[in-house]
Design goal:
Layout: H1 11-17, H2 19-33, H3 39-46, H4 48-51, H5 60-63, H6 75-78, H7 83-92, H8 112-123, E1 152-160, E2 166-177, E3 181-195, E4 202-208, E5 212-222, E6 227-236, E7 252-262, E8 267-278, E9 287-296, E10 298-299, E11 306-318, E12 326-336, E13 343-352, E14 362-369
Antiparallel strand pairs: 1-2, 1-14, 2-3, 3-4, 3-5, 5-6, 6-7, 7-8, 8-9, 9-11, 10-11, 11-12, 12-13, 13-14
Helix pairs in contact: 1-2, 3-8, 7-8
Length: 381
């Protein structure tokens, strides 16, 4: 194999192999002049060699190696992740989020403020303002719907102590449609405790529950204020066996709004409010509900594993004479499992605050897979 001199290497490969010394050389005249660089200047000097001056990425022929470059002009890609994902990859290199080590670590040559400046410029390559920023994608609460549109699978298990115990296994498939829409399908499977003759022996019945389909649309979002608002409608179909207690026996329509708000110091708040309308009134009561959750995300080390403890307050009321508002408290925690942070675990409980004689504690856990960010077994190392 013929040897290649450094002068014959592609510009991008030179930058990858000697990012620290090259960037130090680039920055020397600017630092000496005492003039801070703009985000566009930092990008041009530090990133454009591989990612291209227009953000679309150099071709493999230009790069000298066969590694596809991300297209920062593709809003579907560029808008999804917040700076908490982009900064570690830029500062520590691709392996910081289990990507290729061909992405060099720039942290020795650029400060975090300079990295943020370059990222601010990268965000301008997506020129469609309809796409919400990834910073508005707050952690998933157990019982409060999110405003941000997703591409995810969520596998949930709920155990309920309520006279006769029950276990519900629900698979959620969420698909984002363009900038603002999402469709979701929820398929529950129930395992319910039953009493035999004489109310002594215990059996367990197994069956499909009522399948739900929901469509969500983002109505408003603003990165500068950390706000996002969506409206959605969920339709629950009577696919479960009503006689065995696996279904409600009627179509139920649930319109709702969902709101998310970033707060200082890593805190966030989310709210969901709406109602439920059974199409056959004799099968159930109309209901209104409100669910709010307050949480805070913190990281191990430099944007390592993320921990998001949350506490929720839930209220619901049947629209019938003499009904009482039911209140619940929900302590919970979400933690990232994979290095890429696209696999997450959430768990917690729903504790009744009133009518405790008729309502038991509910325990829920879920495994979330953000499949847009890679396969389930990718991104762990």
């Amino acid at each position: 194999m013929a040897s290649v001199s450094p002068s014959e290497l592609p510009d991008c490969l030179k930058a990858v192999l000697s990012a620290g010394s090259l960037l130090a050389l680039m920055l020397a005249p600017v630092v000496a002049a005492g003039e801070p660089m703009s985000g566009a200047d930092i990008y041009k000097k530090s990133c454009a060699a591989c990612h291209g001056p227009d953000g679309q990425g150099r071709s493999p022929e230009e790069l000298g190696f066969n590694l596809p470059m991300p297209d920062f002009t593709d809003c579907s890609f560029a808008s999804r992740e917040g700076n908490s994902d982009w900064i570690p990859v830029t500062a520590q290199g691709g392996p910081a989020r289990a990507f290729s080590d061909m992405m060099p670590a720039m942290g020795d040559a650029l400060s975090e403020e300079e990295i943020k400046g370059a990222l601010d410029h990268i965000r301008t390559f997506c020129d469609n303002p309809n796409w919400p920023r990834g910073e508005l994608n707050f952690p998933l609460p157990l019982y409060t719907g999110k405003a941000f549109p997703e591409d995810e699978y969520v596998f949930s298990v709920t155990f309920e102590e309520d006279g006769l115990d029950s276990l519900t296994l629900t698979t959620y498939y969420e698909k984002r449609l363009g900038a603002r829409y999402q469709v979701e399908v929820a398929v529950p499977v129930l395992l319910k405790e039953t009493r035999g003759h004489g109310n002594e022996s215990v059996d367990w019945d197994f069956g499909l529950g009522d399948v739900a389909v929901a469509v969500k649309r983002v109505l408003y979002h603003r990165y500068e204020t950390g706000s996002i608002l969506s409206a959605a409608t969920e339709v629950i179909f009577p696919t479960g066996d009503e006689d065995d207690g696996f279904g409600g026996g009627t179509v139920v329509v649930e319109p709702f709004i969902a709101y998310g708000q970033a707060l200082p110091a890593g805190f966030f708040m989310q709210f969901q409010g709406g109602g439920a309308v059974p199409l056959k009134g004799e099968k159930g009561n109309e209901e209104v509900f409100g669910r709010a959750v307050l949480g805070r995300t913190s990281f191990e080390g430099y944007y390592g594993r993320a921990y998001s403890p949350m506490v929720g307050l839930l209220a619901s009321r049947d629209l019938t004479d003499g009904s009482e508002t039911l209140w619940d408290l929900s302590p919970q925690l979400q933690v990232t499992l994979s290095k890429r942070q696209h696999i997450r675990l959430g768990f917690g409980a729903r504790l009744p605050l009133n009518k405790t004689d008729a309502r038991g504690v509910q325990y829920t856990a879920y495994l979330l897979w953000d499949w847009f960010d890679g396969g389930f077994f990718e991104g762990w190392r």
